[in-house]
Amino acid sequence: MSSTPSAPVRVGVIGAGLMGREVASAFGRWFALLDCPVRAALVAVCDVNAAALDWFRQVPSVEFLTQDHHALLARPDLDVVYVAVPHHLHESLYLDVLRAGKDLLAEKPFGIDLAASRRIRDEAARLQRFVRVSSEFPFLPGAQRAIQIYQAGNLGPLLQLRSRFLHSSDLDPAKPLNWKRQSQYCGEAGVMNDLGLHVAHVPLRLGWRPAHLYAQLQKIYAQRSDGKGGMAACDTWDNATLHCTVDLPGQAGVPLTLETRRMSPTDTNSWELEILGTDGGVRFSTKAPKTLRQYVRGREQTWSATDLGFAMPFKTITGGIFEPGFPDLLQQMWAAFLAERAGLLGDRFGCATPDEAVAHHELWAAALLSHREQRVVAL
Ligand SMILES: NC(=O)c1ccc[n+]([C@@H]2O[C@H](COP(=O)([O-])OP(=O)(O)OC[C@H]3O[C@@H](n4cnc5c(N)ncnc54)[C@H](O)[C@@H]3O)[C@@H](O)[C@H]2O)c1
Is pTM beyond 0.90 here? Predict the structure, then answer.
């Protein structure tokens, strides 16, 4: 086991909703990590909603609860702040964190639009803060192995690259509206803002930067229950398919499809990556979370299935035969964030960078333009 510094990194959370609680869970079982060189403790939590804070009273490491994020940021004993709030608040809260002298794990999409993402990135660079953006699925063993297979360069000329993130809960028209379905809070890019970094992170990391794209965007239900007996406009894009062209060294014009869908029948939370070449291919889906599918060229081709088990980037107490799940990924992502912040990531996969977050917003801005003008857009 690597040496463990005696003092844990002290983390504060702003936004004690769905994701804020997941972070408390990841830190609460940090002892499950066997070779993470950094320890961490969640010590302070902020939410404007007092009821949301109450849940954190059961978390032993938490010393401070507040409804005012300025009070949290004024604490000199916090090293890192994680912010998980609606998208229209990203820019102002992220800038407050940076200007308070804290490092930041930001939630995606890193600002409500491209302009906001650039302002956050530039301020982080000016202040020389360590900033990364939340995107946990690449830490899955299947995703890591797919990346390694691609980087080994034995797949032959590439035929198709595909990255997808698919939900189905919005198929129910009776599901009440929330902030993620309203442009003023989620952003004009809608589902791309909400699910998009999950599909863009690996492609951007692997250098698959689209030169051109054509976008198909869909809004399915125009109204939803407002949860108070009335109806309200549901004005975000529900499904987005981006048909992209990528020029790679030695191979121009590779098709890349990026799909984000809130209405994808049968998919509760399916993250999928597929890389097809003439000599081989690799495919991974969270529908089979420990299983990697591969083919190699022959007279006939078949997909083989390899169970990778719990081959996580950071070793844990969990036996190698078991299946990874969403809470495990978040913990791995946090381990990568804190290790990289300490300069101890080594050759492991790192969290999404501010530049990658800006680049993913460039895709969504181009997609909105493509849809509006019904044309292919050059990036
Ligand atoms: N990485 C992932 O897999 C993942 C999954 C879901 C959501 N997210 C992202 O996390 C962020 C939050 O999403 P969520 O699902 O947790 O939302 P949520 O609605 O469950 O929680 C947001 C919380 O922020 C609080 N809040 C609002 N304004 C605040 C303020 N000024 N100060 C402090 N707290 C404030 C709300 O009261 C609420 O409790 C979004 O950026 C979303 O895109 C990421």
Answer: yes
